[in-house]
Design a protein that fits this description.
Radius of gyration: 41 Å
Number of strands: 3
CATH architecture of one domain: Orthogonal Bundle
Order of helices and strands: HHHHHHHEEHEHHHHHH
Structural class: mainly alpha
Shape: extended
CATH superfamily of one domain: Death Domain, Fas
Largest sheet: 3 strands, antiparallel
């Protein structure tokens, strides 16, 4: 925690000037149990935003490493341009740009001249600087080409311009993936192949190629919902009053019944018959009519 305290002390002025609202920091600390409600109220009771920021920094320094980590995480969320100062070398308050292969530790330029003069040193920002420069050049060239295209009336160069931009994009992506793969291989070698089994870990290049294949390939043909709905309405459904469907309906009713116990034979299913096919007792109807007219029915 000594290094964290040194960083808070060395960059106190910049943090006090930057942090204008302390309540989100206090809410996070209170939520994770790093402070109590009384300490929350004490910081909020300060009059000016600068006094509140000073009280917050003093509280974080007094609470220890857990409070410092939560403070730094929320600082990265709300003030990413300032969060970098809490990742510096605590002894010299400078950015880490070097790595000592012999000691296995990050260094700033002053650390190298003091204690690591004869050690094997590698840069951790050289690749980042190259990527930053190339990305900047890619964006700058794109805007220049688009500006020229907008001022001209030629439409035939549209496809050629898009092809050129895509080629430079693919080259930039390949360079970035290659650098990330080298860093991953270095980390795997440091861990040791016998200690960690990396057989199930997909490489970044394979993931990128999968993404490109998925984006370029056509997706499955999906039938529109409207078409499916129309087909559903056009489907012919069996009607119980049609003779051609009475046999199928009886079969469905029989199949839907639960299995009967042994020795028991269920009655045949009752199939509804349309009124036009019901048998009518004509004599009964005539007798009823005679009775209604006052005639004696024998």
């Amino acid at each position: 925690m000594a290094s964290e305290l040194e960083l808070l002390k060395s960059n106190r002025g910049k943090l006090v000037e930057t942090i204008l609202n302390v309540k989100p920091f206090l809410d996070r600390l209170l939520q994770h149990g790093e402070i109590v409600k009384d300490e929350y109220d004490t910081v909020v009771a300060e009059k000016t935003p600068q006094d509140k920021a000073r009280a917050l920094l003093d509280l974080v320094a007094a609470k220890g490493r857990g409070a410092f980590i939560h403070f730094r995480q929320h600082l990265k969320k709300d003030y990413p341009e300032v969060e970098e100062v809490l990742h510096r070398c605590a002894a010299h308050n400078l950015r880490y740009k070097l790595y000592c292969e012999q000691c296995g530790m990050l260094l700033c330029r002053d650390c190298r001249t003091e204690d690591h003069k004869d050690h094997s040193i590698s840069s951790i920002v050289a690749d980042a600087d190259v990527i930053r420069r190339d990305v900047t050049a890619f964006m700058r060239d794109n805007r220049k080409l688009l500006k020229k295209f907008k001022t001209s009336d030629e439409e035939e160069g549209r496809q050629k311009l898009l092809f050129d931009i895509e080629m430079r994009k693919n080259a930039l992506k390949a360079m970035f993936i290659a650098k990330i793969e080298r860093e991953f291989e270095w980390c795997r070698n440091q861990l040791g192949a016998s200690k960690v089994d990396m057989s199930e870990v997909a490489s970044i290049s394979s993931i990128a190629s999968t993404e490109s294949n998925l984006s370029s390939s056509d997706g499955p043909d999906i039938e529109p919902a409207q078409s499916r709905k129309a087909k559903t309405w056009r489907r012919r459904r069996p009607h119980p009053y049609l003779r051609e469907n009475q046999k199928d309906l009886g079969t469905q009713l029989t199949a839907s019944r639960s299995p009967s116990p042994e020795g028991f034979h269920p009655p045949p299913p009752v199939v509804p018959v349309p009124p036009s096919y019901r048998s009518v007792d004509v004599v009964t109807v005539i007798d009823r009519r005679r009775a209604s007219n006052g005639c004696v029915v024998s």
